[in-house]
Write a structure and sequence with these properties.
The protein is α+β, with helices and mostly antiparallel strands and 337 residues long. The protein has three domains: 4-98, Rossmann fold; 109-125 and 211-334, 2-Layer Sandwich (D-amino Acid Aminotransferase, Chain A, domain 1), CATH 3.30.470.20; 129-208, ATP-grasp fold, A domain (Dna Ligase, domain 1), CATH 3.30.1490.20. The chain has helices at residues 17-30, 63-68, 86-93, 103-110, 112-121, 153-163, 187-197, 242-246, 261-277, 313-320, 325-334; strands at 4-11, 36-43, 49-51, 58-59, 72-75, 129-135, 138-142, 148-151, 168-172, 182-184, 203-208, 212-221, 226-234, 252-254, 282-291, 297-303. Strands 8-7-6-11-9-10 form a six-stranded antiparallel sheet, covered by helices on one side. Strands 4-3-2-1-5 form a five-stranded mixed sheet, sandwiched between helices. The chain has a five-stranded antiparallel sheet with strand order 14-13-12-15-16. The chain is globular and about 65 Å long. The chain binds adenosine-5'-diphosphate (ADP) and magnesium ion. Adenosine-5'-diphosphate binds at residues 127, 169, 171, 175-178, 181, 207, 209-210, 214, 235, 239-240, 287, 289, 300-301.
């Protein structure tokens, strides 16, 4: 059988460049060499592309032409310009098959405000939230019917504090790996963290904190979507910050999560529903909170290109469900051909 020419694209122009390199290393180590002829491609932070096959790495001068040579591409990229629909748009223009979600699903999944709107429509329960936009020195408060009101920082924080209960999470709408995400316990912190989040994106989401377990479920497929078992994230810090995710070795994952079977099944159903609601394809990891005492499920977000290192939740969840890393890659690739 002729081998499939598979481009594995990693690195990228986002804050998650390094994480992507780690994900790609695992992917490259686990791909079935009998099945695929592999073309590793590195995108540097400045946006230049390199062929990673032989050393020294060769700069790819004509990206479009290079991609035309491949049968299919796997963007192992996280964050902006990789997980947000932009690179998927390039593949669409080239009519090049690619792995994972399309332009729309990627764009929705990357934007926390729009994710919330779609989840709301799908009847998925989530934390109460407000949406504001930075506008020069001021902030535009966006009502649920999209009417706008302009406030100063102090005024907007006060307004939010009348709508939502502390503690609150403040997040740039487009971000990942917890960059720019903070937890505020009072009005002063709320102001500070709104200002901080506005450095990463002018769209800002503020939501009530859910006290409980943080759990994740992996989904796979396009027509017939399956969900993995549910895993739990045990952050070593107050919340799962960038540091807790990548630097603090005390952060742990527990698979399966210590939650009742009934709740786990409900989470699996909701994960598939959320994936379908954003028009997902191929793969995603869907993150939830299970509230302490009530066991109420709140959906948090969907990651259309989740972490893929050997110790990442996505492959580990399927491993526990009986699908090895190598089989998982085959299934993901097959579901997109
Ligand atoms: N509403 C919330 N309640 C409790 N914890 C939250 C909430 N929102 C975010 N967090 C914490 O902040 C972390 C990062 O937020 P998240 O929305 O997942 O952003 P990212 O896309 O950067 O992962 C979560 O993993 C969780 O620990
Ligand atoms: Mg997250």
């Amino acid at each position: 059988m002729k081998k499939i020419k598979l481009g594995v694209i990693f690195g990228g122009m986002s804050t998650e460049n390094e994480v992507s390199v780690l994900s790609a290393k695992s992917v490259l180590a686990n791909l079935n060499r009998n099945k695929y002829e592999i073309y590793p491609i590195y995108i540097a932070k400045d946006g230049s592309w390199y062929e990673y096959k032989e050393k020294p790495q060769e700069k790819i001068e004509n990206v479009m032409q290079y991609l035309q040579n491949l049968d299919i591409v796997f963007p192992v990229l996280h964050g902006l310009y990789g997980e947000d629909g932009t690179i998927q748009g390039l593949f669409e223009l080239l009519k090049k098959p690619y792995i994972g979600c399309g332009v729309l699903a990627s764009a929705i999944g990357m934007d926390k405000v729009y994710t919330k709107i779609v989840f709301e429509k799908a009847g998925l329960k989530q934390a109460n939230y407000n949406y504001i936009r930075k506008n020069n020195k001021d902030y535009v408060y966006i009502h649920k019917n999209w009417d706008e009101e302009i406030f100063t920082l102090k005024q907007v924080a006060k307004k939010i504090a009348t709508n939502l209960k502390f503690p609150m999470f403040i997040k740039p709408s487009n971000s990942g790996s917890s960059v720019g995400v903070n937890k505020a316990s009072n009005l002063d912190e709320l102001e500070e963290y709104i200002q901080n989040a506005s450095q990463f994106d002018n769209k800002i989401l503020i939501e009530e904190a859910i006290i409980g377990k943080e759990v994740e479920c992996a989904v796979l497929g396009t027509q017939d979507v399956i969900a993995s078992c549910v895993g739990e994230v045990k952050s070593a810090e107050e919340f799962y910050s960038y540091d807790a995710k990548y630097n603090n070795t005390e952060s742990k994952t527990q698979i399966p999560a210590d939650i009742p079977e009934k709740i786990a099944n409900e989470i699996r159903n909701q994960a598939i529903k959320a994936f379908k609601a954003i028009d997902g394809k191929g793969l995603s990891r869907v993150d939830f909170f299970v509230e302490k005492d009530t066991n109420e499920i709140y959906i948090n977000e969907i990651n259309t290109l989740p972490g893929f290192t050997n110790i990442s939740m996505y492959p580990k969840l399927f491993e526990e469900s009986g699908i090895s890393y190598m089989q998982l890659l085959d299934k993901i690739i097959d579901s997109n051909i």
